[in-house]
Amino acid sequence: MQAVINFLHENIEAVYIVILMIFLGIEIIGRVPSVLHTPLMSGANAIHGVVIIGAIIVMGKAESGNYIALILGFLAVVLGTLNVVGGFVVTDRMLEMFKKKK
């Protein structure tokens, strides 16, 4: 527990930035009209390809005994991949609505 408190104390600026980003994200998403949610979110989910690449780089540079970095990197790759695939599925379903029916 003391290690967590020391980490937070040493990186208090980063903690403040993360908290501000959370509030800013909630405020921005809350003001988007519901009509625009599907196209914006499907495009934003595809950006998670950057998360996948970053997670792969972190896993590649992690020491072999650093299991926390390896597990977190693996989870980031899996969740990022799910988000990218979900973004493409939502986009495909959205585009299907605009095709002419036979």
Automatic annotation (TrEMBL):
- Catalytic activity reported: NAD(+) + NADPH + H(+)(in) = NADH + NADP(+) + H(+)(out)
In Gene Ontology terms, what is one molecular function of this protein? proton-translocating NAD(P)+ transhydrogenase activity
What Pfam families does the database record attribute to this sequence? PNTB_4TM (PF12769)
- Give GO cellular component annotations, separated by semicolons: plasma membrane
**Domain NAD(P) transhydrogenase alpha subunit C-terminal spans what residues?**
15-100
Report the main location listed first in the record: membrane
Out of the domains of life, which is the source?
A: Bacteria
Protein EC: 7.1.1.1
Tell me the membrane topology, using the record's own terms: Multi-pass membrane protein
| Localization, UniProt | Cell inner membrane
**Which segments cross the bilayer?**
14-32, 44-62, 68-91
UniProtKB keywords: Cell inner membrane, Cell membrane, Membrane, NAD, NADP, Translocase, Transmembrane, Transmembrane helix
Q: What does this protein do?
A: The transhydrogenation between NADH and NADP is coupled to respiration and ATP hydrolysis and functions as a proton pump across the membrane.
Cite the PANTHER family for this sequence: NAD(P) TRANSHYDROGENASE, PROTON-TRANSLOCATING NAD(P)(+) TRANSHYDROGENASE
Stated name of the protein: proton-translocating NAD(P)(+) transhydrogenase
Which organism's genome codes for this protein?
Ginsengibacter hankyongi
